[in-house]
Amino acid sequence: MTSYIHQDFADLLCDEYGQLLQQPIPISSWLFPGAVVRHAAFGSRTKFEVTPEEALVLVFAPVACWYFLLPTDQNNAYYRYVLVIPEIYDLAAYAEFSWQFRDSSYENFWCASFWDGGLKFLSLQEKYNSTTTAYARRCQIYLFGKADWSPQQIVRLGTEILEVTVETISCYQLSCASFPRNAVLGKDEKFYIAVSRIRGKIADNLARKLPWWINLFQNDDFKNLSGELRFVKEALLNMIDKTHWDNEAQKLFIKACHEALRRIYAKLYGRASEEEYVQIEHRNIRIRSEVRRCKNAIMFREFLSGFFSEAGQVPTLQNHWEELLPIITGEVDWKLTRDLLLLALASYKKKTTSENKKGPENKDSKVLESNQEIIAPVD
Which end of the chain is more exposed for a tag (fewer CB within 10 A), N or C? Predict the structure, then answer.
């Protein structure tokens, strides 16, 4: 880089004697992202103007801001960009932290979702920052990309304010430690960055102050997530085990579902021949489909009754039925219970072959092979 536009911007701020101008000056999107003329026919009326003092601050703003790249997906053919503007309390300490952060791995500058960019910044600053007064608990997030109505230019697509608690950051950091890191994948000299979309959805929930597991496997996003689900069972189990649950009965419900699935599959293994084990995996898919087809509390309650009846005796359900009764009967929101059941299905891990040498589930080794991690993280 031999030059950049900020170098000569001082000429627009001052008069011939080097004094700041007294009247407002126009600015464009390179100085303030999103500050574009709204209508070409009325440029003078729809342009952005600020005082010279404000423009001077904007010249230095990029040094303090953070930028993340969102990968393309089925819904977005173009790359999108996330700009994070932190709320800084200690400028000197923040500047020291920034140098350390900017020297970190490439993967820190890719995010899985809009909110993931903001949470990634707020989370990483604690890793690289030794001064608690420099922690920013609040930031603004801007999303930029190509809109359908204006594919020739990159425009501002969304603006949000993110404010987090210590608990939110702790849960987000656990998700980053549990799920695969961003990785470089490619073939024939064509490379791309693979990110965890499930981690992105968890970040979206946390930023909106929702439970991390809510709406995680809904129909709209399931196709995008289905390819990743095979490799993240351990990650989901780690999140279930180590996150704080405001309602402990929800965690018990997931445990009861795992026990029910184990008993259902055990019965199938006992009756299946070598050629029929693929049907066992189909049974898991069918259960998930039946859950997602439940459109109201009555349908879902009927499904749960049949599900636990098919399993038979479920120890957790028997020992904690009073705690689980409001969840199962729908006294709480049945959609929350449905999300918990979908989480249980996604996180259910079949026993290893060594654990099943004496039992009928040992023949599921072919299915187990597909659950092994195949994406190696790149530092």
Answer: N
Dihedral sign for Cα 267, 269, 271, 276, please: positive
Q: Which of 177-181, 211-215, 278-282, 334-338 has the lowest mean pLDDT?
A: 278-282
In whole angstroms, give the CA distance from residue 261 to residue 244.
Answer: 24
Cβ atoms of 149 and 157 within 8 Å: the answer is no
Cα–Cα distance, 100 to 112 (Å, whole number): 22
- Domain boundaries, given as residue ranges, for the chain: 1-61, 65-241, 248-369
Closest CA to 343 of 302, 292, 303, 299: 292
Q: Please report which helix (H) or strand (E) contains residue 223, including its range.
A: helix 219-229
3-class secondary structure, 63: helix
- Determine the average pLDDT of the residues in 80-103: 82
CA distances from 370 to 82, 119, 231, 374 (A): 34, 31, 8, 9
Distance of CA 129 to the CA centre of its chain: 23
Asked if 144 contacts 83 with a C-beta cutoff of 8 angstroms, the reply is yes
State the Cα–Cα distance between residues 318 and 41, nearest whole angstrom: 72
Model pTM score:
0.80
Q: In 234-251, which positions are buried (b, 16+ CB within 10 angstroms) versus exposed (e)?
A: ebbbbbbeebeeeeebbe
State mean pLDDT over 259-285: 73
Please compute Rg for the chain using Cα positions: 26
Tokens of 302: 């009927």
* pLDDT at position 207 over 90: yes
Q: 1 CB contacts (<8 Å, ≥6 apart)?
A: none
- CA pair distance 233, 222, nearest whole angstrom: 15
The percent of residues above 90 in pLDDT, for the chain, comes to 25
